[in-house]
Design goal:
Layout: H1 8-75, H2 80-103, H3 111-122, H4 124-133, H5 138-159, H6 165-197, H7 202-225, H8 228-238, H9 241-256, H10 263-355, H11 362-365, H12 375-433, H13 437-463, E1 476-477, H14 478-487, E2 495-497, E3 504-505, H15 507-526, E4 534-541, E5 544-550, H16 558-569, H17 582-594, E6 597-602, E7 608-615, E8 619-620, H18 627-636, H19 639-647, H20 689-715
Parallel strand pairs: 2-4
Antiparallel strand pairs: 1-3, 3-8, 4-5, 5-7, 6-7
Helix pairs in contact: 1-2, 1-5, 1-6, 1-10, 3-5, 4-5, 5-6, 6-7, 6-10, 7-9, 8-10, 9-10, 10-12, 12-13, 12-20, 13-17, 14-15, 14-19, 15-17, 16-17
Length: about 725
């Protein structure tokens, strides 16, 4: 499902979710950075308390063992002092390894320097073996220890991983001071060996000179980087007598290439200087560790404050966004509900009332849509209200127009009815005064045309929403209504009315039922071949009386049957543009007026069968109708209808009378002359012209009385 099918609430949620997620991600990123700084400071403190202290002690022990090893390499004697120092070194190595284990995950960033140092410590055994066996020279043996100590100082460089620039600068300066202390120790080890045999080889002199130069550079660098608090102790050391004495003797060794003149003086000076430097270095390291802890604590506090405020801001944004989204969604939902109510309830109800002919007050019905919210929502609501007023006004105008058109139809139809009544009266008079059978035949056809014109006028009255006005007090037999309906069809000679059970319909609905059946029969004759018959039959059923009109035309498609049946079941407002379905509209209106159900379906013969089910409340049981009764009921019908009904070609009457044949009751002189033998003289007529005239005159007087009675009933 595409996004276009999503609800507006879901889209608003997505719209607000994206910036909230971005804000949350940004808050998490900043929090992670600051937490990383805090963790770095805390990790630096942990490393100092574990690996830092252990490695410092390890460096001091290795420096001491290097001095004893220099003496052994010179004298080729293994003393107890060397053995004791090696034991202390081994103990320090074990403590260092234990510190590495205790540091745990804090050493993740120190894997490479720790691996290098531990590998160098593993070589301590072979170095000692070479010294004990005399295979190593003095400078070579000292260089092996130097490499181990270089690994320790490399580890020191990686221990300083804090992000605080000031702490990092002080740590680097202390690292330089510590490395300078290591070069003093290297000078001391080389000088102790040279004092044992009273000479320095040329490579040893070069190494001593290199150590002295590196020491001076590192002291200058470290002293320049330290702040006042950490620099002052070192300045005091550099101004002390031991350091000045050391510098003098160091310069003499570099200049002359010979060992210091006095071994005791050199050793004492180095011991005092080393002690001072180690003490100040340890104190400076403690101060720096404290600063690191304070910085870590401050960073954590800042993180807590910033993170808390950021979290509050994120939560506030979420709450505000959710409330805003719910409010906006509620406003839109209210607008949607109002629009749906307008389109699905109010406007259809107004249209239905207009369809029923009720008066509608535009001001009262076109109420403003009441919604609250932002300006855009209220603007849309006002726009919907304007559309509503326009639609109601247009609907009222259309209804008024339809009523006007219907009134025009009704007035024209009433006028046409009046003219047709006068025309029928003239025809009756002409028929009474006419003795010529051919003229009577022509007048009969003209009467038939007038009857059809009257039915069309009544169709206009039905379409205008009014009733034709004809009604009878007594029930009318079904067979007479069917005959009257067939008589109002142009091709009535093609209609075959079958024998139907004796019954009658309510006289108040007789005219409309006749009109309804006439429309169905005429539709069957029009849409079927002219050489085919149209069958009309009926039967009493449980729900009323069913009349079937079946033709042998081409039929319709399933979709057309469905559309026509829907129109017949629920007749819509008459569309003036749809003039091709006037008959169906008339049938639908008449059926809806009396509760008649009309259904079109395919005939087994390929044509169409129209079924009209008259409800039981309009059906009156008549099981003992006589011929005289039938004539009395026929006399209640209009004269034009009765004459044509008597002239219909049928299979039989409701009383079982024989089929009527045109001119069967006339004398041979009034019948059409056969064309086969025009020369033969006609036989004398059984009835004279006067008798025929009297017969038609009596017939005309009866029809005139029936028409007057029917007109009186319609006026009532």
């Amino acid at each position: 499902m595409g996004s276009r099918n999503r609800s507006i609430r879901f889209k608003i949620f997505l719209l607000l979710l994206l910036p909230l997620l971005s804000l949350s991600a940004l808050w998490g990123f900043v929090l992670n950075l600051t937490m990383g700084d805090a963790q770095s400071l805390l990790r630096a403190g942990t490393l100092y308390r574990t690996i830092g202290i252990a490695s410092t002690d390890l460096g001091l022990q290795l420096q001491a063992e290097r001095v004893r090893s220099a003496e052994a390499l010179t004298t080729r004697e293994l003393t107890d002092a060397l053995g004791g120092q090696r034991a202390r070194t081994d103990q320090s190595v074990g403590e260092f390894r234990q510190a590495v284990t205790e540091a745990g995950d804090a050493t993740d960033n120190l894997r490479r320097p720790l691996g290098t140092l531990l590998g160098a410590l593993d070589r301590l055994g072979p170095i000692r073996a070479d010294i004990d066996s005399g295979l190593s020279s003095r400078l070579a043996g000292l260089n092996e220890y130097n490499r181990i100590l270089d690994s320790i100082f490399l580890l020191y460089d990686h221990l300083v991983t804090v992000s605080d620039l000031a702490i990092l600068q002080q740590a680097a300066s202390l690292q330089a001071m510590g490395m300078a202390r290591e070069y003093i120790a290297r000078e001391h080890a080389l000088a102790i060996g040279a004092l044992a045999d009273g000479r320095l080889t040329e490579p040893e002199t070069a190494a001593f000179t290199e150590y002295a130069a590196s020491r001076r550079f590192l002291h200058a660098r470290g002293l320049a980087g330290l702040d006042v608090t950490l620099r002052r102790p070192y300045e005091q050391v550099f101004a002390s007598e031991p350091f000045q004495t050391f510098v003098t003797m160091e310069a003499r060794v570099v200049r002359t290439g010979t060992p210091p003149p006095e071994a005791a003086g050199w050793t004492e000076t180095i011991s005092r200087l080393a002690s001072e430097l180690d003490k100040h270095g340890l104190a400076a390291s403690e101060v720096l560790a404290g600063r690191t802890s304070e910085a870590a604590t401050g960073t954590v506090v800042e993180i807590a404050i910033a993170g808390g405020l950021g979290l509050i801001a994120v939560l506030a944004s979420i709450i505000i966004s959710v409330r805003f989204g719910r409010r906006l969604a509620g406003e839109l939902a209210g607008l949607r509900a109002a629009a749906v109510e307008l389109s699905e309830q109010r406007l259809p109800d107004i249209m239905e009332r207009l369809r029923k002919g009720e008066d509608v007050d535009v001001r009262k019905e076109a109420k403003a849509i009441k919604v609250s919210g932002s300006a855009e929502i209220t603007d849309v609501a006002r726009a919907f209200g304007s559309v509503q007023r326009t639609a109601v006004t247009a609907a009222v105008g259309q209804a008024a127009l339809r009523r006007g058109v219907g009134q025009v139809f009704l007035n024209l139809a009433r006028r046409k009815q009046g003219l047709l009544h006068r025309q029928l009266a003239l025809l009756d008079g002409m028929q009474r005064r006419t003795h010529d059978p051919d003229r009577l035949e022509e007048l009969f056809r003209l009467d038939h045309l007038t009857t059809r014109m009257r039915r069309h006028a009544e169709s206009l009255i039905v379409l205008s929403g009014s009733a034709p006005g004809r009604a009878w007090r007594k029930p009318v037999p079904v067979i007479d209504i069917v005959r009257a309906a067939v008589a109002e069809v142009e091709d009535y000679t093609r209609v075959n009315v079958e024998v139907m059970p004796v019954s009658a319909f309510d006289g108040a609905a007789a005219a409309d039922l006749t009109h309804l059946l006439a429309e169905l029969v005429e539709n069957a004759t029009i849409y079927s071949p002219p050489d085919t018959q149209v069958r009309v039959g009926g039967d009493q059923v449980s729900n009323g009386y069913a009349i079937e009109v079946e033709d042998k035309g081409p039929g319709l498609s399933a979709g057309e049957y469905a559309a026509f049946n829907a129109l017949l079941a629920d007749p819509p407002e008459f569309d003036l543009a749809d003039s091709g379905r006037l008959g169906l509209f008339v049938v639908a209106r008449l059926a809806a007026r009396h509760g008649v159900k009309v259904l079109l379906r395919r005939s087994p013969f390929g044509g169409t069968t129209a079924i009209a089910l008259v409800p039981r409340d309009l059906v009156t049981e008549q099981t003992a109708l006589t011929v005289g009764d039938s004539g009395e009921e026929m006399a209640a019908l209009p004269s034009r209808t009765r004459k044509k009904a008597l002239a219909v070609v049928t299979s039989g009457t409701h009383a079982g009378l024989p089929r009527r044949v045109r001119q069967a009751g006339l004398s041979s002189r009034l019948k059409d002359k056969p064309s086969a033998a025009p020369e033969q003289p006609e036989r004398p007529a059984e009835r004279s012209p006067d008798e025929v005239r009297d017969l038609f005159s009596a017939f005309q007087r009866g029809t005139q009385r029936a028409r007057e009675e029917a007109q009186d009933e319609g006026d009532k």
